Each structure stands twice: as C-alpha cells, then as structure tokens.
Amino acid sequence: MAEQLNEYAGKATMEKITSLAKRRGFVFQSSEIYxxxxxxxxYGPLGIELKNRIAAAWWKEMTxxxxxxxxxxxxxxxxxRTWEASGHVENFTDPxxxxxxxxxxxxxxxxxxxxxxxKKCPECGGELTDTRKFNLMFKTHxxxxxxxxxxxxLRPETAQGIYVNxxxxxxxxxMKIPFGIAQIGKAFRNEIVTxxxxxxxxxxxxxxxxxxxxGGTDEEWFNEWRRRxxxxxxxxxxxxxxxxxxxxxxxELAHYAKDAYDIEYLFPMGWRELEGVHNRTDYDLRRHxxxxxxxxxxxxxxxxxxxxxxxxxxxxxxxxxNVLMILCxxxxxxxxxxxxxxxxxxxxxxxxxSLAPVTVAVLPLMKKDGLAELAQDIRRELKEDxxxxxxxxxxxxxxxxxxxxxxxxxxxxxxxxxxxxxxVTLRFRDSMEQIRVPKAELTxxxxxxxxxxxxTK
Length: 457
Ligand code: GAP
Hints:
Blueprint: H1 14-23, E1 27-29, E2 41-43, H2 45-64, E3 69-71, H3 81-85, H4 88-91, E4 93-98, E5 105-107, H5 113-118, E6 132-135, E7 139-141, E8 151-153, H6 159-163, H7 166-173, E9 179-188, E10 203-213, H8 218-235, E11 243-247, E12 259-267, E13 270-279, H9 283-292, E14 298-300, E15 306-308, E16 311-318, H10 319-330, E17 331-335, E18 345-349, E19 360-364, H11 371-383, E20 388-390, H12 396-406, E21 410-414, H13 416-421, E22 423-428, E23 434-438, H14 442-451
Parallel strand pairs: 3-9, 19-20, 19-21
Antiparallel strand pairs: 1-2, 4-5, 4-6, 7-8, 9-10, 10-16, 11-12, 12-13, 13-16, 14-15, 17-18, 21-22, 22-23
Helix pairs in contact: 2-10
Bound molecules: glycyl-adenosine-5'-phosphate.
Glycyl-adenosine-5'-phosphate binds next to β10, β13, β16 and α10.
C-alpha cells in the first residue's frame, strides 16, 4: 500500500492504465511471445467489448439519430490511383532523420531544434543524417509479381473509400445534399514514433463521417458539426474539463484542409488530439474527377439540375484512440474504508453503463446450499438483455473489487434471504451502495439505472 500513497496515488498514469489493460484482458501487446510487434496491439475479451460498444455508440449517433446519414464499409485495399488523387502519395509524409551511430530514427519536428541544427543525435550525440521525407503509407504488392505495376497501399484513412462511393450512394439511396456517409474501419500508417500504448499505432481504427454540402454553406456546416461532435462527448459522459478545442494553424493544416479543429483530450501524458473536424472543401472530389476521368458532380434535381462538386465536412475520430480516452477517463483509485481498514484502496473504472464490457455480474454469496444454482438461474435470465459475468470464487469483497476494476457498474448478490423471499442485493459500482430488489424486477430496474445514469465522481 505504501507505494500507492506516493504522489501518483489516486491518479491515472499511462503505466497504470497499460498494466491494468493487460492484467484484466483489455489490451495485449501484439505477438508478445516473440518480443512484441511495435505499433500493433490485440484487444482481449474486455477490450473488444469496450471497443465494440464505443463503435456502437458512435454508429448510433451518426446513423440512427441522423436521417441524412447512411453507412458504408469499403475495402481497405483500393486502386493505387486513389492515393495519387487524394494527394497521399505526394504529401502524406513526416520529416525523418536517422542517427548514423546508434541507428535511432526520429521525427525531425519532434527533436530539439538545437540538435537538428547541429545534426546531433539527442540520444547518443552521434551524427544525424539530413532530413528526408518519409511517406507514412504502407506499400505492398498484389498478385504474384513484385514489380511497380503491382504496388498497392494499405489505406491510411477510411475517408477515400467514402469519396469514391459517393455517387453510388446517391444513386442507390436517393440521397440529396446535404447528406453524410459514415464508416468505421481499419487504417494503417507507418508511424515513426509509436508510444503511449494504443495512442499512436501503425494499425488502428477510425470512425469517420463525410458530410457533403454545397460550397458556400460549408463554413456553416463546419461549425454545426463542431457543435454536434462536442455535444456527443458530453452525452457519452466524458469529463468535459478534460476536453478542449485546438484550431490548426497554417503550418499544421493537412494538404486537403481549408480549416480544421481538433478535439483534444487531457490524457495522462498531456493534451492530445482525439478527433478532427475538417473542412476539406471540394479538393477530394475534384481530384478524383481529374484522376478517374469520371464526373463527380452532384446534380441538384430540385434546382433546375444545377451541377456542382460538393464540399466535404469531415469528422474523423480514432476508435482505438477513443478506447484509450475512455479508459483514462474512467480510471479512478479511491481509498475506501468499507472493510474497517482505511488503508484499503480500490481501482475502479467508472465506465458509463452503456459502454461497460460487463453490465451486470451475478455473485452467489456461497457456492453451497443451492445459492450457486439460484445465481446461475438469475444470470441466465439477465443474459437475454445484458452483458453478464458470473463469479463464485473467493471472498465477496474481493469479487466486488475485481468487478470494480473491470468497470462493471452493477453486481447482483444472491444470499440465503434470496432463497426465502426472492430478493437479491443490487450493488452499485460508483457509490458501493447496496439495496435489496425482488429478482423479478431486476431487468426493469437495471434498464432504468442505465438510462438515468449520471456520473458523480
Ligand atoms: N481522414 C482524416 C484523417 O485521417 P487525421 O487527423 O490524420 O485525419 C483522424 O486522423 C483521427 O484518427 C485522429 O484524430 C486520431 O484519433 C486517429 N489517428 C490518426 N493516426 C493515428 C494513429 N497512428 N494511431 C491511432 N489513431 C490515429
């Protein structure tokens, strides 16, 4: 306990988050038995549930709650001309320097200016190479011949799959501008520096929505989407004092953007980008017109068949980065004296119940006297409506702690009284309060608790 009473007591650090994630099966290092693969992570049983729920919350927000947005799942492998048109072959680069002595590789914009000017390695003092452009796209070959004709890229953003399909979707779904297309999927970037756990990785997932508008209305829609994306995180129950806006300066703007704002989150390592809202103008569709030779104009049937290339407002969030944000946001340690010992600490993930990997855990007080069977019956019933867990191993206090650490918002305990009067104990993760509830009312009570949940700590 003593080491917990140091300056980090009660606070989230990346070390604690990473270690909890591994210990509880949220995230494992990829190919760990071979020493790990840089920039790649595997999502374990709790991690995949959390990731799926974050994705589902975003999908519901973007599609179900917006009549003018439809979904898409485009292929990762796209025609290589796509990436010439999008500007990624030419512009999607980081400045790179290598140390000739220790062979370390750095992003030139992330080492001290004096080192760059003196060409001196910040690690070993050795000589640095000249700065060169390094393209972040993973290049591979398709088919049996490994020649230039067979080069193909792993997509570095999901957006382009939407642009090349925008006419298909207008035709098949009779969409009228303004309208949006949402997509969740993998993206790949050969990042030079991958650190901070799953924050920046080579393989990751994005949740992107491209909103097609008429030029001239783009700034209005840009502001509207900024407002909506901010409200989304508020609804998700994220600590709002941990979020802020950052507008891109002229040097930061991506090659396609006229204006861009990041929503930044205060991670344990500081303020970092969580999501970007971009005004991409008509850049992408113009370029695809030019490179494909296909007409990408929208024909406004309601306005004398007026033709124009739409502007695009993009909201682009990292799904895997959202997983990290939600883990950090939920992480808490508190000193509790519920066992008469005021040195007793608990680690608790205060997930919103709609995001928690397990919604309700059913725990028999004892394995014997029919309590385990009764608890399993109750679990079977709850399973139809909620993600459940069952645990009969060890002292009840320790079992509660295990569920707290996994972020399970509700525990149902079955005891001797349950056999007599059909009631169970419902324990709340955040307050640790316990109440008795007739087991027949559990489902409706849990539904109500989830709906009315407000984070208090
Ligand atoms: N389509 C626009 C686009 O891709 P971006 O700012 O490069 O814009 C959008 O990326 C979001 O994708 C970021 O805000 C971040 O959440 C996530 N992201 C980008 N690169 C990432 C990486 N290497 N690892 C994890 N997430 C990443």
